[in-house]
Amino acid sequence: MSSTLAGPLTDHCFTSVAHSGTPKGKSITIAGVPTYLSTPQAPAASEVGTVILYFSDVFGPFYINAQLVQDYYASQGFTVVGIDYFFGDPVHLHLDKPGFDRPTWRTKSVEQARASVPKWVDGVKEMFGTNVNYCAVGFCFGAPYVFQVAATDMLSCAAVAHPTSLTEELLRASKVPLLFSCAETDSAFPAPFRRHVEDILVEKKATYYFQIFSGVSHGFGTRGDPEVETERWAKEECQRAMVGWFKRFMSSK
Predict the structure, then answer these.
(1) If we measure between CA atoms, which residue out of 183, 218, 222 comes closest to residue 62?
(2) CB atoms inside a 10 Å sphere around CB 198
(3) With the C-alpha atoms ordered 80, 85, 165, 216, is the resulting torsion angle positive or negative?
(4) Rounded CA separation 44/77 (Å)
């Protein structure tokens, strides 16, 4: 039986401070699934070199915070595709509604993700081909889907921030270098779980990197308050580290 390494969604997963900015990507459809596409803006970037598969938290890839993160990756030379496994029904459309049935919404969303992720990943490979590097990144709800793809031969590396619903089986199946970006306060991924993950990675002789930020909680990687210096710095450093991780392994396949 596979043990739990990151727990289910908690209240922290459903809170956010909306960031400000102008998205540069666009909406496309891959394998029948709505997708946010963000590409490098430089004229020289006519050929795709590395594609980032972006697996969002419950706010979805079209939430402003997620769009800006994906655009940041694109500004660093990557082509980014973010799957909308919520099919236009992310959680923030419901949070202010009286009587919102969060468990039912979660069950529906998990079922949609399980059904859509495999065909979407195949669609991404069909769209960009085999002569590019692929990396994956996931936040909260999106983390287990990163590990599903990391168990295949598709990726060069992967990264997750404040993961949920991670099992030992998923972790042990991963074939690629892993980055974990972690919060000091995280009821879904507390220190004992985090240390167990590290023990398994050491046992596997895996290539891995942990970063742990004090003074922040679950969700900081995409949904922290930019007016709070500690949260802003942690979010920005998280994203800088992920870009560095992708660049380190972008030529490894």
Answers:
(1) 222
(2) 14
(3) positive
(4) 10
148/73 Cα distance (integer angstroms): 22
Does the pLDDT value for residue 192 go beyond 50?
yes
Cα distance between residue 189 and residue 164, in whole Å = 7
- Whole-model pTM over 0.90: yes
Cα–Cα–Cα angle for 120, 104, 150, rounded to 5 degrees: 30
Separation CA 133–CA 124 (nearest Å):
12
Interior angle at CA 120, CA 179 and CA 147, nearest 5: 25
The two three-digit tokens of residue 25, written as one number: 């990507």
Q: How far apart are CA 163 and CA 12, in angstroms?
A: 12
DSSP classification of residue 2: P
Beta bridge partners of 28: 35
Closest by Cα among 179, 185, 213 to 197 = 179
What confidence tens digit (pLDDT) does each residue in 228-248 have? 999 999 999 999 999 999 999
Contacts of 85 (CB under 8 A, 6+ apart): 33, 109, 112, 113, 116, 117, 120, 145
Question: How confident is the model over 2-61, as pLDDT tens digits?
Answer: 689 999 998 889 999 999 999 999 999 999 999 999 999 865 555 678 999 999 999 999
How do beta strands 26-30 and 33-38 pair?
A: antiparallel
